[in-house]
């Protein structure tokens, strides 16, 4: 099989051992004589997968009992609508921090539902850094932020601590499970699975029971968080195969040594790449401000568009996949989610060094 270094931004690399396990069990899941995809979502066998995924998430992320873990669909993008539909009313104001395209999209959906306020923004800096100086509106429904900006390659190091009555909501699609987080400072976390959690199809939501009580009763059933909480995310047919894959990825994370190990490894990988960029004497330029740099998406440019094209072309020939920057910003991006190995990052650094020597 062709050797590939997968730096895709999502769907992204999955741990090889997880794929192998899924392959082993594919036709005959735990001696049921069926694939996990063929099981009824009401069967005992599927239920154990479902519960395992939920319990492992709680264990690994240290989710307190005062929170619920939900499995939804529609990707992170549907959460952009679900959040204001549940929590934005005629008498409060949704607060958004703009740190990139995904937060802009989240705000756009909230504006269709009610009054919104931009509490902070780094748009004027081309989203090259994490915004500071948060100014909340009066009567805030919540404050929404994007913890890792997949396109611009910036990441919140620490989450803002808000007054007790203001729920913090975090889109953690591209950095959930990559590091330890203070769950109790965040009232709702959501993430599409297709970066650190598994294949696309399931959206994980971690919500405090306190916030759950505030869901608007007129929210459509399938967008109302209470529907999922009250029915163990089995109100209708969940994405069973994605949840099964999630359970395998979570087992892998645990076997690796949990978030302490994962976080340390992610730092090493990111440092390796940023180091290569910083030592390139301006041949490669990191697009994010140093103190805002993401440990998940390393974004950089080359001196000219022609060199960028040549870099991407030669990289592809050598088996490096997914290095083109997002279509909105161009340049290059190496997405180094949990399943991307240190070995892949070392190979990329070596390729970057060689490319620079041959093209300076
Ligand atoms: N938020 C962030 C931070 C993302 O990176 C993405 C996808 N790349 C989305 C939201 C949208 O996710 P989905 O495709 O699951 O709707």
From TrEMBL:
GO molecular function per UniProt: O-phospho-L-serine:2-oxoglutarate aminotransferase activity
Biological or metabolic pathway of the protein: Amino-acid biosynthesis; L-serine biosynthesis; L-serine from 3-phospho-D-glycerate: step 2/3
SUPFAM superfamilies reported in the protein's UniProt record: PLP-dependent transferases
Cofactor: pyridoxal 5'-phosphate
Modified residues (N6-(pyridoxal phosphate)lysine): 195
InterPro entries: Aminotrans_V_dom, Pser_aminoTfrase, PyrdxlP-dep_Trfase, PyrdxlP-dep_Trfase_major, PyrdxlP-dep_Trfase_small
Residue spans crossing the bilayer: none
Enzyme class name: transferase
NCBIfam families: PRK05355.1 (NF003764), serC_1 (TIGR01364)
Subunit details: Homodimer.
Protein name: Phosphoserine aminotransferase
Biological classification of the source: Bacteria, Bacillati, Bacillota, Bacilli, Bacillales
Gene name of the encoded protein: serC
């Amino acid at each position: 099989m062709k050797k590939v270094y997968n730096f895709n931004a999502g769907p992204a690399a999955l741990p090889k051992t997880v794929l192998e396990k899924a392959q082993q069990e594919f036709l005959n899941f735990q001696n049921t004589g069926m694939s996990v995809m063929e099981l009824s979502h009401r069967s005992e066998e599927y239920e154990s997968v479902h519960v395992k995924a939920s319990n492992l998430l709680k264990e690994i992320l240290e989710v307190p009992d005062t929170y619920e873990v939900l499995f939804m669909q529609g990707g992170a993008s549907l959460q952009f609508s679900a959040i204001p539909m549940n929590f934005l009313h005629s008498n409060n104001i949704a607060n958004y921090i703009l740190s990139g395209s995904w937060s802009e999209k989240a705000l756009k959906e909230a504006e269709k539902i009610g009054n919104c306020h931009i509490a902070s923004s780094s748009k004027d800096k081309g989203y090259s850094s994490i915004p500071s100086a948060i100014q909340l509106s009066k009567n805030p429904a919540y404050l929404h932020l994007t913890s890792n900006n997949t396109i611009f390659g910036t990441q919140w190091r620490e989450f803002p601590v808000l007054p007790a009555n203001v729920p913090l909501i975090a889109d953690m699609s591209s950095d959930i499970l990559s590091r330890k987080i203070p769950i109790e400072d965040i009232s709702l976390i959501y993430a599409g699975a297709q970066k650190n959690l598994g294949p696309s199809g399931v959206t994980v939501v971690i919500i405090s029971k306190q916030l759950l009580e505030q869901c608007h009763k007129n929210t459509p059933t399938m967008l109302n968080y209470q529907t999922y909480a009250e029915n163990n995310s089995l109100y209708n047919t969940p994405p069973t195969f994605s949840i099964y894959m999630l359970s395998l990825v979570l087992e892998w994370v645990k076997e690796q040594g949990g978030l302490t190990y994962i976080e340390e490894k992610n730092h090493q990988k990111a440092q390796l790449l940023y180091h290569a960029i910083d030592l390139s004497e301006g041949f490669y330029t990191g697009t994010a401000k140093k103190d805002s740099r993401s440990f998940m998406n390393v974004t950089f440019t080359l001196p000219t568009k022609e060199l960028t094209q040549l870099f991407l072309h030669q990289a592809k020939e050598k088996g490096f996949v997914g290095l083109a920057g997002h279509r909105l910003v161009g340049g290059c991006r190496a997405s180094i989610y949990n399943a991307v190995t240190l070995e892949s990052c070392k190979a990329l650094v070596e390729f970057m060094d060689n490319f620079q020597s041959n093209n300076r």
